[in-house]
Write a structure and sequence with these properties.
The protein is built from three helices and three strands, in the order αβββαα. Strands 2-1-3 form a three-stranded antiparallel β-sheet, with no helix packed on it. 70% of the residues lie in helices and 10% in strands.
């Protein structure tokens, strides 16, 4: 099956979305959790692993950089547009596949009809040949034989038209 324009576009859109998803996942994984740890005497330490001995975790500290509202809105809009584009591409692909299936069914029906026409023409030719053979078995006039020969020629022409190849 040939690759159509919407298949290539869909692959392109998915190829663009994958790096964005990986970037989002990696940035979430890069931001390690930092804890504020306090000892009994009030000394504060920060750790990105377990709190040191003699201290207790008080709270987690948000270390991820703030995301600009404009950037966040732009990213959401790009994601919305990309999702809509992918949906439209999928819809167009489904429509084209349906049209291809319908065309294939119509072609199959036409081929069956053509085969039936060919088979009928061959049967009629055989009947004409049988009728002529019957004329040779019994006494017949020249007109009857000529008429039978004309019928055979007509049926042979029908077979040639109805059965290409």
């Amino acid at each position: 099956m040939t690759m159509t324009w919407y298949t290539r576009l869909l692959q392109h859109a998915r190829a663009m979305l994958l790096p964005l998803a990986l970037l989002a996942a990696s940035s979430a994984g890069v931001a390690q959790q930092v804890q504020r740890c306090e000892s009994a005497d009030g000394k504060v330490t920060y750790s990105n692993t377990k709190c040191p001995e003699g201290t207790t975790p008080v709270r987690s500290v948000n270390t991820s950089p703030p995301v600009a509202v404009d950037e966040q809105k732009a990213a959401k809009e790009r994601a919305r547009r990309d999702a809509a584009e992918v949906k439209a591409i999928d819809k167009a692909r489904a429509k084209d596949e349906e049209q291809e299936q319908r065309a294939a069914a119509e072609q199959k029906k036409a081929q069956a009809k053509e085969r039936e026409r060919c088979d009928k023409a061959k049967r009629e030719l055989e009947k004409a040949k049988d009728a002529r053979a019957e004329l040779h078995r019994r006494p017949a006039t020249i007109q009857q034989i000529q008429k039978s020969d004309g019928e055979i020629a007509k049926r042979e022409a029908e077979v040639a038209r109805a059965c290409p190849g």
